[in-house]
Amino acid sequence: MPSAQPETSTSVSRPQPGAPGESPGKAPRTFLGEGLASYYGPGLHGRKTASGERFDQNALTAAHRTVRFGTCLRVVNMENGKAVEVRVNDRGPFKDERIIDVSLGAARKLEMVQKGLARVRIYRCKDDGVSSVFSPPLEARPG
């Protein structure tokens, strides 16, 4: 008898060429994940971020749990196709069901301010290495 249970797959799907977040004629961007994004800003403007810089709610920045500070991420709103490139300068979000917090400025570009949340895909801006004053490369130390 055939099984009535649906097949499950554990493979990670990669974006297809021409998918949002990809540039025609260039190597595909690294896909980092998909999930809910929220935004933050008004109550935190001017405070220090986890990277040590002052938070500017109008800048194109974001909070991510694991990506290095200074990394450029392309965030694509799956509901309307709007995209923005942000620089990670903080840690968060602190709600498990969310994948990234973007600044108010980035939320405006994504057209998600009114809703407060948006389903997004996140890509690394470039795959040719990331360097920044906030994220020096890790080097082996003697001893």
Which tags fit this structure?
single chain; globular; 29% strand; 143 residues; Barwin-like endoglucanases; mainly beta; disordered N terminus; disordered C terminus; six-stranded mixed beta barrel
Helices and strands, with pairings:
Blueprint (H helix, E strand, L loop, with lengths): L30 E10 L20 E3 L8 E6 L5 E8 L7 E6 H6 L7 E8 L19
Parallel strand pairs: 1-5, 2-4
Antiparallel strand pairs: 1-6, 2-5, 3-4, 3-6
Q: Can you describe what's shown?
A:
By secondary structure, the chain is mainly beta. The chain has a domain of about 90 residues: Barwin-like endoglucanases, CATH 2.40.40.10. The chain contains 1 helix and 6 strands. It has a 6-stranded mixed beta barrel. The chain is globular. About 30% of the residues are buried. The N terminus and C terminus are likely disordered.
Spatial arrangement of strands, main beta sheet: 1-5-2-4-3-6
Whole-number mean pLDDT: 80
Assign the CATH class of the domain at 31-124.
Mainly Beta
Number of helices: 1
Large-scale geometry: globular
- The percentage helix is under 10%
The tally of strands reads 6
Structural class: mainly beta
Order of helices and strands: EEEEEHE
Stretches where pLDDT is under 50 for at least 5 consecutive residues are 1-18, 130-141
Short summary:
This protein is mainly beta and 143 residues long. The protein has one helix at residues 104-109, and strands spanning 31-40, 61-63, 72-77, 83-90, 98-103, 117-124.
